[in-house]
Design brief:
40% of the residues lie in helices and 22% in strands. By secondary structure, it is of the alpha+beta class. Strands 1-2-3-4-5 form a five-stranded mixed sheet, with helices on both faces.
Length: 150
């Protein structure tokens, strides 16, 4: 069981996106994957700044979020699946899945993030008894059409 990168919301909100990318690439390379698919690196380049912006906004609304844990590419135990982001907020677990270039909430994408939440509930002891909230983030969607009914 591993995580490609771990930090807090407070640290992430002031971090450099290139440094975050470096941590992710190095971590995955250490896991035995010699070369990264260009597509994955491009996806990280697009999503890390969005996540950074989200972290800053979250801190403005909830200063106590400064200490919440941010896990990037967390490997779900016994499942070998990795949601993009797991945010540990006291007794709530947020599971974020980014769809780079996505401009709608597609059924298969909804199911993917829901199944990550179910996997955490079923295969991750520390998540049991916590509220687990799946969140789909299509990167090209307009704010007017955000759907919170995942």
């Amino acid at each position: 069981m591993g995580v490609a990168y771990w930090t807090t919301v407070g640290q992430y909100s002031t971090a450099d996106a290139r440094a975050q990318l470096g941590h992710l690439v190095a971590s995955v390379a250490e896991a035995g994957i010699a070369s990264q698919r260009r597509e994955q690196i491009d996806a990280w380049k697009r999503t890390l700044p969005i996540l950074e912006s989200m972290a800053r906004q979250l801190l403005q609304l909830l200063p106590e979020a400064n200490e919440w844990a941010v896990l990037l590419e967390y490997e779900i135990p016994r499942r070998a699946r990795r949601p993009d982001v797991v945010l540990l907020a006291r007794d709530v677990v947020f599971v974020l899945e980014f769809k780079v270039g996505g401009d709608e909430y597609r059924g298969p994408d909804r199911w993917q993030v829901r199944s990550y939440a179910l996997d955490l509930r079923d295969f991750h002891q520390a998540s049991r008894g916590r509220a687990i909230i799946p969140m789909l983030v299509p990167t090209s969607i307009s704010h007017a059409s955000i759907d919170l009914s995942i």
